[in-house]
Amino acid sequence: MKTESSNDVTRILVVGGGYVGMYTALRLQRKLKQELQQGTVEVIVVDPEPYMTYQPFLPEAAAGSISPRHVVVPLRRVLPQCKVVIGEVTALDHTDRRATITTLAAEETGNGAVEVEYDEVVLAPGSVSRTLPVPGLADVGIGFKTVEEAIGLRNHVLGQLDIASSTRDPAVRDAALTFVFVGGGYAGVEALAELEDMARYAVRYYHNIQPEDMKWILVEATDRILPEVGPDMGRYAVRELRARNIDVRMETRLDSCEKRVAQLSDGSRFPTRTLVWTAGVKPHPILAATGLPLNAHGRLKCTPALQVDGVEHAWSAGDAAEVPDLTASAPAKPDEPRAVCAPNAQHAVRQAKVLAENIAAAVRGGPIQDYEHKYVGSVASLGLHKGVAHVYGRKLKGYPAWFMHRAYHLSRVPTFNRKARVLAEWTLAGLFKREIVSLGSLENPRAEFELAAGTGRHNEAS
Fold it and tell me: Which of 9, 53, 285, 422 stands the most exposed, by the fewest C-beta atoms within 10 Å?
């Protein structure tokens, strides 16, 4: 099936529905409202999922502070003037300006992929987990990039408490109560801190488990954690975590996790049933298949105006793009590379605004502008009422930093609907007790029916 581009219609293809993709399409709806209504412009958004995930809220979703459905934003609801295609771009020929999209229907019917012609393309597929060839990692590792992984991890941790509570085997109990997190960036630290907080609260309802029975281990290959908040706040975060009996091991690597034993580079061995991998991300593989210029790390080389360097009608931002940082000081030597914008949410959201403005200008024939934004700092949560922040040169810790973390992300989560729901859940969570129920059966909802249908304990005699 082919979708041809009419000469009378300017088609803008947005690859990815994450931060950059959704915010760019949202802005294009407003900037090109008249053209969209007249049918002279068409915006197509392609993403494997029908929603955008607000990833900074994943740790709180895992801890049960926010409902999973409030961490995601439905694309069709917020982009009513755009065409949302649930699928994945598998090939892109920019010479002919043609993209090949594999949709859910194509997989079911076997009729082949959809080919879409476009006039302008925004490449914002985001990033994927960067794994290393660690023996056993592919078999037992748990990621933390999607809402499904966050809720699965919550159910898994609570399930381990149930296993430990119901066994007399000390080896099984010790492995169930040992939780290893690899990666000391935002995802790893915030996920560990929130889940440790939740588990410590939950064990008060287990008659045979004490908080000190649990082992929480953070493994970081470098000499610091949370580098975005600065060295001072990073050291404070380490002290805060260690004060909660969390074993923080820096300059340490995971060498193996075969047979559910985490073997570290310092010689330590930890039998564990929980190994969470948050050690970095890498650009989406589709970028390598575009034939567009990439840097050494696989990101698209872009100009300050967010155009792919040396390529017309191709744009990018966020995790997929290497964008020069115009606010950084010039290199000391002429042959040194210029500083680039960090691939984080703060830049992605602001880049999306400039990107949409520039695409609208390109469609209407106006001038485009460069992206320029000075990095204001970072905030990180270390569990309920605990956090660190380094914003506008000021350093905060404890409750003020935690409050700033929540206030900032509440202001950034898309749509008033989501803001109101998240705020309501936070308010209710402050008034009532935490929920500590594991719904692990959600991951295999047909299991009970399969048993009843004759494959298990409910099989009836004929």
Answer: 285
What per-residue confidence (pLDDT) applies to 1?
45
Residue 363 CB contacts under 8 Å (≥ 6 apart), including other chains? 10, 12, 32, 35, 41, 120
Separation in Å, CA 443 to CA 55, 151, 257, 439? 21, 10, 24, 8
Q: What angle do CA 336, 339, 345 make, to 5 degrees?
A: 160
List, in order, residues 6 or more apart from 377 with CB less than 8 Å away.
229, 389, 390, 391, 392, 393, 394
Flag the least confident range among 34-43, 367-376, 429-438.
429-438
**Is pLDDT above 60 for 461?**
no
Q: Kind of pairing, strands 98-103 and 114-117?
A: antiparallel
Give yes or no for a contact between 316 and 309, defined as CB atoms under 8 angstroms apart: no
Measured CA to CA, the distance from residue 229 to residue 395 in angstroms comes to 8
Q: Specify which residues 270 forms β-bridges with.
A: 262
Alpha carbon separation from 267 to 116, 120, 255, 261, 371 (Å, rounded): 54, 53, 9, 12, 47
Residues paired with residue 39 on neighbouring β-strands, in sequence order: none
Q: At what angle do helices 147-165 and 186-202 cross, to 10 degrees?
A: 40
Residue 367 exposed, middle or buried by CB count within 10 Å (0-12, 13-18, 19+): exposed
Spatial separation of the C-alpha atoms in residues 138 and 134, rounded to whole Å: 8
pTM above 0.85, yes or no: yes
Structure tokens at 290: 């575009």
* Structural tokens at position 157: 């941790």
Query: Tokens 């039998």 correspond to what residue?
Result: 271
Q: Are 446 and 452 in contact (CB under 8 A)?
A: no
